[in-house]
Amino acid sequence: xxxxxxxxxxxxxxxxxxxxxxxxxxxxxxxxxxxxxxxxxxxxxxxxxxxxxxxxxxxxxxxxxxxxxxxxxxxxxxxxxxxxxxxxxxxxxxxxxxxxxxxxxxxxxxxxxxxxxxxxxxxxxxxxxxxxxxxxxxxxxxxxxxxxxxxxxxxxxxxxxxxxxxxxxxxxxxxxxxxxxxxxxxxxxxxxxxxxxxxxxxxxxxxxxxxxxxxxxxxxxxxxxxxxxxxxxxxxxxxxxxxxxxxxxxxxxxxxxxxxxxxxxxxxxxxxxxxxxxxxxxxxxxxxxxxxxxxxxxxxxxxxxxxxxxxxxxxxxxxxxxxxxxxxxxxxxxxxxxxxxxxxxxxxxxxxxxxxxxxxxxxxxxxxxxxxxxxxxxxxxxxxxxxxxxxxxxxxxxxxxxxxxxxxxxxxxxxxxxxxxxxxxxxxxxxxxxxxxxxxxxxxxxxxxxxxxxxxxxxxxxxxxxxxxxxxxxxxxxxxxxxxxxxxxxxxxxxxxxxxxxxxxxxxxxxxxxxxxxxxxxxxxxxxxxxx
Length: 532
Description:
By secondary structure, this protein is an alpha/beta fold. The chain has 2 domains: 2-198, no CATH class; 215-529, Alkaline Phosphatase, subunit A (3-Layer(aba) Sandwich), CATH 3.40.720. The chain has helices at residues 2-22, 40-51, 54-84, 96-145, 147-167, 181-208, 239-242, 245-260, 279-288, 295-302, 309-315, 334-337, 362-374, 414-418, 423-426, 430-455, 472-475, 492-501, 522-529; strands at residues 38-39, 170-172, 175-176, 178-179, 228-234, 264-271, 319-324, 341-344, 382-388, 460-466, 482-489, 516-518. The strands form 3 sheets. It has an 8-stranded mixed beta sheet, with helices on both faces. The chain has a two-stranded parallel sheet with strand order 1-4. Helix 2 packs antiparallel against helix 5, helix 4 (96-145) packs across helix 5 and helix 13 (362-374) packs parallel to helix 16 (430-455). It is elongated. The model has no long low-confidence stretch (mean pLDDT 92).
């Protein structure tokens, strides 16, 4: 019985090692075919442990076990990043996302639930390292106890691996028997680390190239003089949802409704520097005109003096305001972007229930902008940046539209919140989740359409866009990073500039043939289009 248990544990240890070496870094690639391979790392590792002696062998086995544990942890983290941000983890630049992840966990599951998730994650990491180290040390003892058989097995396996590699042998179409996935992954990561370490210098050079750094205010944005310009980011409004029949139908309806109110639309696509999260990176990219795709770049940007759209408007005589319901703590970066006034979550007067992540519904946010700034008689021309958060994950509960005179302090949302689906119900099914995600986008867009109908005038210019695509489960696995962008105005001269200089489509929601720009190119193209 003891012998059977011992060999069972040894077999499980070997299976764990093979599983770690062969497991892909994305969930969708975890198929039976992925494990019909022979990893060269296992053969080489067994050979090395046979060659070493005494203490050197123990140290090597321990390091190999820890290394395998770290490999598994990085693969799990990669899976998480692919499922949320549609890309692998960057071991140099992505550590700030840990804080964002903890904040999302606590805001989604509550403080106790969020802390519980974090504790479980830490315990999992420790458990993985212990288990892999014990497994490799157990295998090492077995190799030594059966040295002759192990030596023959390593030699045969090595010869077979070389033959399979030379012949390109496959048991499953597209999957080579001779595997070296862990080695290739390590090489890719080493190259990525090298690039990431140089990224600060690369970005520093890009930031210094600024065609508008010294442009006088009287030469900026002449084509928008006297207008109130709203730059509104719609959370997670990506190309995938924009191409659904429901959003297309909403776009057609919006076009008819806005035309009745005297407004027209032009639209296109921008390619965001992020997906699934990191909204602030997209905001910074659009406003600064440089590609901000990681936190290191963001920090470098906001510590400098590169001209943002906010400060360009400010320099040209506009009052620059930020209506930021998602800002829930001190935000020192506001000084860099350039605002005369920032309204954060604590000074927008909301007393209603929280809908998922968003501190307040989008319609309420827009109503407060109207009350505090846009609706004041005799106000100076406004440039407003307004991120809307009702379409942020977890997409439950979702607010409903109310009459603009019914909003009050937000208490009127209590009944809507009580009757809404819970996030637990929504996340039970991917199909239901995608439906609720789409409905949240419909709500955000309807808030904007209704706002323009109610409060838009001859001076109103609305620019709204998505910040990034949502997490892949909400897109059905789509990998595009394109997001829609639309400008709405009554002024034909404004729209003609967009059509002629920017080549955007005549549509509320851009179609398949709409132009696609890098988001970092928007600032310069927009300033050039409205320079005269």
